Amino acid sequence: MIRALALVLVLLAGACGVTRPPSMDLEGADSFEEDVRTARTLSEAFWKQQFEQLGRTYRPLTAFIPYSGRSGPACGNEPAVPNNAFYCPLGHFVAYDQDWMEALWTEMGDGSVYVIIPHEIGHAVQAQLQTGFQLNVQAELQADCYAGGALSALVNSGALRAEEGDEDELLYSLEAAGDPTDDWLDPSAHGTAAQRQASFARGYQNGVSAC
Ligand SMILES: [Zn+2]
Asked: What are phi and psi of 21, to 5 degrees?
């Protein structure tokens, strides 16, 4: 059954941390926990289908782990840090600081969750496709592209509903988002905001095959 969920495209200029943009959900507001769960479930369902079309089998995440502060799971020798979300290839899991992500959700709208989770699951896809990149930034930009492609497919299928806006706006959410490998806000690590928006938009407009 397709769940009619709203995807709020965040206009950061109008949402500078004061009030939460209204939910576009027809049924009223989804809770933060529901949005996180839905973002994960729909993203993985999308990739399962994509892999099947390639004659492959998507391997679901082994775990999807909320944490607070420094209580998160380590990834090898890398401890989990506050204000972050990450994919760990060693355990094939995604973990996220739930307090931090809920604050983004509150301040920026649910679009933040629908960018960050698909981005991290994009890294899980890269791990399975064994996509080798020389530079971390290439992997990050591809994960942004994957997130855009997955989101547009979900919008086109009716599973999510995008309203008023421009997919580029979602990238402002990513600018505030975390990652394990290094400082998310370091352009050399993740690409400049313009590069990231372009990469996300390429996926959103042309699908994940364009990534
Ligand atoms: Zn990343």
From this structure: -60, 145
pLDDT at residue 182, as a whole number? 45
Instruction: Answer for the pair 202, 148: CB distance below 8 angstroms, yes or no.
Output: yes
Per-position DSSP letters for 115-131, written without gaps between them: HHHHHHHHHHHHHHHT-
Distance 143 CA to ligand 1 centre (A): 6
pTM of the full structure: 0.81
Cα(28) to centroid of ligand 1, in Å?
A: 31
pLDDT of 172 reads 60
The CA 140 to ligand 1 mean position distance, Å, reads 5
The strand pairing partners of 66, in sequence order, are 96
Instruction: Give the burial class of 51: count Cβ atoms within 10 A of its Cβ; 0-12 exposed, 13-18 middle, 19 or more buried.
Output: middle
- Which ranges of the chain have pLDDT less than 70? 1-29, 163-189
Q: How much distance in Å is there from the Cα of 53 to the middle of ligand 1?
A: 25
